[in-house]
Amino acid sequence: MNPDIIVVGAGLAGLTAARRLTQAGRQVRVLEARGRVGGRTHTLRLPQTGLSVDVGGQWVGPNQPHVMALIHELGLEVYPTHDEGQNLALIGGKVLHYRGLIPPLPPLVLADYALLSHRFEALARTIPLDAPWTAPNAAELDAQTFETWIQKNARRPQTRALMRLYAGGVFSASPAEMSLLHALTYTAHGGGINGHTLTRGHALQDRVLGGAGSISQRLADSLEDVRLNSAVLRAEQDDAGVTLHTSAGTHRAAHVVFAVPPTLLSGLPFEPPLPARRAQLQQRLPMGAVIKFMAVYERPFWREAGLSGMAISDSGPVAVTLDNSPPQGHPGVLLGFIEGDEARELMDADEDERRTAALNSLGRLFGDEALWPIETVQRDWTTEPFSGGCYGALFGPGVWTGYGEALRAPVGRIHWAGAETARVWMNYMSGAIESGERVAAELLAARG
């Protein structure tokens, strides 16, 4: 029996849409190319220590209502990210200790950064979250890269370094890879720079007990028809419905939701072909590049030294670190992100080379003890064929203003979800959930 609706993609967006549609009485089938659910979230158990860690998305915060509401609905719990103690910054070859957001740089640098960030956030507040292409001066903002704007407006090299670290940490990309309009839009989704980068009260405040992958697993467990290892190979639409040809058979429904990164659809044959604007959009949305690395120690030794485990570095390859220890505080886990240009430099390296490079970065920040973990794990998201990268899609110059209107617009009986289509918290778990709820409401309205 054919379902009413097929959802392609068993990440947070697709599973949320399927749950809401099922709750409304629709027959829904979920097709997932991977052999697991979760998409860009993935919780796994380490073989030596038995510790469960998130090698994909993991943080949630009180300023993200959609994910927090779903966590509560599913009966899951959160616990706070450890942030007590001093942070570290390796800037210009010197390790600085500090608390809060900004390292203790020279007064002229701090003044320059304050002016630059104020100007940037003021521009971000002018961007309509769900329609950036309608912003005042959208064409001008979209015609330049974020890097161009940094070069023009930052007077000090340390200020430029801080803004590039922000781009790497939040976008997993170089500021040269995105338009200024995209950087402003993304920043506005989090309510400003602090909304994306701070813990208490912000996006990094909490982690999900049992791992972020448990959200997707609970969602999948509530559904009757989730089919793994079913990559879609072709989509055919007619007046009565949509037929999907997959690696595991053929499926048909009255409507289909694609809840996957748009770039993955650029090589998928559609019959009839997608409208030119939608097809061109999919060709213009590459994903960010990030390698997530974790080192496990018998204890969180940095806490004994009065350190929070949070650090930033302009020398790489690890640019950002956080304390990723479990709620009981042991074993100790340091998490390091290798992002953008640094990730690309290590793309062709083997795991041992990446491990050595990452541990050397941790050693420069936290001392020799960081060089001797009892276990490590790494995930290079650029090698994930059904993600294409992380954290999300990058809109280069001209993409928002030239093609943005096609991002969420249905094409006949085909609808679009996924973190890239979120109207708030784009490319975050909360944004993925919001997009699933949005497309479910869209379909229920379309079907009366």
Model description:
- It is built from 15 helices and 21 strands.
- It has 448 residues and is an alpha/beta fold.
- The chain has 3 domains: 5-40 and 212-284 and 394-446, 3-Layer(bba) Sandwich (FAD/NAD(P)-binding domain), CATH 3.50.50; 43-62 and 71-83 and 201-210 and 288-383, Alpha-Beta Complex (Polyamine Oxidase, Chain A, domain 2); 110-189, Guanine Nucleotide Dissociation Inhibitor, domain 1 (Orthogonal Bundle).
- The chain has a 7-stranded mixed sheet with strand order 8-7-17-18-19-16-20, with helices on both faces.
- α1 packs parallel to α15 (429-446) and α3 crosses α7 (180-189).
- The two termini are 22 Å apart.
- The mean pLDDT is 96.
Please give a handful of descriptors for the protein shown.
single chain, 448 residues, alpha/beta, FAD/NAD(P)-binding domain, Polyamine Oxidase, Chain A, domain 2, Guanine Nucleotide Dissociation Inhibitor, domain 1, seven-stranded mixed beta sheet, five-stranded parallel beta sheet, globular, Flavin-containing monoamine oxidase AofH, Flavin_MAO, Amino_oxidase, Flavin_amine_oxidase, oxidoreductase
Q: Determine the N-to-C terminus distance.
A: 22 Å
From the alpha-carbon coordinates, what is the Rg to the nearest angstrom? 22 Å
- Number of E-state strands: 21
The CATH superfamily of the largest domain appears as FAD/NAD(P)-binding domain
Q: Total domains, how many?
A: 3
**Main CATH class of the largest domain:** Alpha Beta
Largest sheet: 7 strands, mixed
Strand sequence of the main sheet, in spatial order?
8-7-17-18-19-16-20
| Structural class designation | alpha/beta
What name is given to the CATH topology of the largest domain?
FAD/NAD(P)-binding domain
Low-confidence stretches: none
* CATH-level-2 architecture of the largest domain: 3-Layer(bba) Sandwich
> What general outline do the C-alpha atoms trace?
globular
Give the strand content. 15-25%
